Amino acid sequence: MSIADNLLEYKSELDKTQVELIAVSKYQEPAAIMEAYNAGQRVFGENIVQELVDKQAQLPTDIEWHLIGHLQTNKVKYIAPFVKLIHSVDSLKLLIEINKQAVKNKRVIDCLLQIYIADEDTKFGLGFDEAIELLRSEEFATLKNVRIVGLMGIASNNATEKQTLDEFIELKVLFDGIKVSFFRKDDYFKEVSMGMSGDYKLAIEAGSTMVRVGSSIFGKRKIKHYKTE
Ligand SMILES: *Cc1c(COP(=O)(O)O)cnc(C)c1O
């Protein structure tokens, strides 16, 4: 099936829900992104800063670009002028830098706290306690140009369906707790970014509001020359 066909299939499936589709276009050529764009998709996720910056410069300006991969503090400045949502905030230090660059660009940047839910050592993210500590800190209260709009998580690789579902439910429960404790009156705190090609159905079952789907829309990843961190 073509990229457009794959997208339309996801769209009709997700239309029954309130879940937003982030088309993960990492390692895909701009032509493939344009195919999705021409089929109506406007929200794309990338995980490498340089690749995101290069594509943003050459593709239509009404695309909403999300950064979903690990972000180094020294690279925030490159995406701060345009990024729509950063899914991968995993430290207060990073959030402070995003705030600083947002001030420079006279904007407020929406962010998700990436929470560590997987049962493995390789994934980035905050532990539950660390996330709460960050939100309680005096420093966080001074950051006026970042807005935490929810949480993001990545489930374990190669887990059983039950374990994957349990990990997503843990994230949703944490979201609900943080909502009540820190954002009760803030309508903007509403996003739970979880679910990828292999597990988005389980994520939706657990309460996802944003799924990040790459390979099952675009097929195999093509570009290899960008350096991962
Ligand atoms: C690559 C990636 C995805 C998409 O993965 P697929 O399995 O291709 O759907 C989602 N989230 C993050 C953080 C990623 O790096």
From TrEMBL:
Q: Which UniProt keywords apply?
A: Pyridoxal phosphate
Domain of life of the native organism: Bacteria
N6-(pyridoxal phosphate)lysine occurs at which residues? 26
Q: Which residues form the Alanine racemase N-terminal domain?
A: 3-220
Q: Which PANTHER family match?
A: PROLINE SYNTHETASE CO-TRANSCRIBED BACTERIAL HOMOLOG PROTEIN (PTHR10146), PYRIDOXAL PHOSPHATE HOMEOSTASIS PROTEIN (PTHR10146:SF14)
Function as written in the Swiss-Prot or TrEMBL entry: Pyridoxal 5'-phosphate (PLP)-binding protein, which is involved in PLP homeostasis.
| NCBIfam families referenced in this protein's UniProt entry, alphabetically | YggS family pyridoxal phosphate-dependent enzyme
UniProt record similarity statement: Belongs to the pyridoxal phosphate-binding protein YggS/PROSC family.
What name has this protein been given in UniProt?
Pyridoxal phosphate homeostasis protein
Species for this entry: Pedobacter panaciterrae
